[in-house]
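Can anyone check this?
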Amino acid sequence: MLPIDALNAAHNGNRPARIDSIGLSPLLRLLVLAPHPDDFDAIAITLQYLQTQGNEIHLAVLSSGSKGVQDSYADPPTWEQKARLREQEQVDSCSFFGLSPARLSFQRLREAEDGELAHHADNQLRIRRLISDTSPDVLLLPYGDDSNAGHRRAYDMARTAVQELGAPLLALYNKDAKTLSFRPDLYVGFDESQADWKRALLRFHDTQQARNLDTRGHGFDERILNFNRKLARELDLEAAYAEAFQIELFVANRA
């Protein structure tokens, strides 16, 4: 059962609230909709907390993420080979995390000319079917006001699917380094030892580590953790790092 009163309080003014203060039941089923391989890892501390509480977590990776792989990293540098590399990285990171392979799926939805997830009727249908088949109580994905087109399109199609299905559901939209406007309703703070664990998890994404080192001068792991550090300062937390979420509560349609 969703903690309606606590969620409304977090939504209407008592924010940001610690995620452990809103009474999420360990019986709630979670579905992570990841526009790319590695979006799961960006909120890994929160997911680790929820899994430790007993929540059942499912992960659906929506697109291949091939756009993010440098040609020099793939042999041959084809879309298919790049997709295999990124998917294997996600498999390895989920194994390290402790997610059952049976709860991980790669959807390989249609991609647009820009290499990101396409806003397409077929994709919309498959996302709706995925949510319907999984029947989650909680949906996690990046917030839609984002400079990344894949994040925006996943957010738009997921919200449309949830509204069409009409079941009660809690959406947790995470802030990431490319998020624009955002309302921090919930957060999870974490310390240096947890940051070390998250760093090790992020390092499984070798293609992203290499690309960030080449293009930004620092690794993918440090990019994410630097953002988590900045977010903790913005929220004025005692914790050194944080992951944060905007919430949306979908109530059941009344026939």
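Reply from J.R.: I decoded it. The chain has one domain: 4-250.
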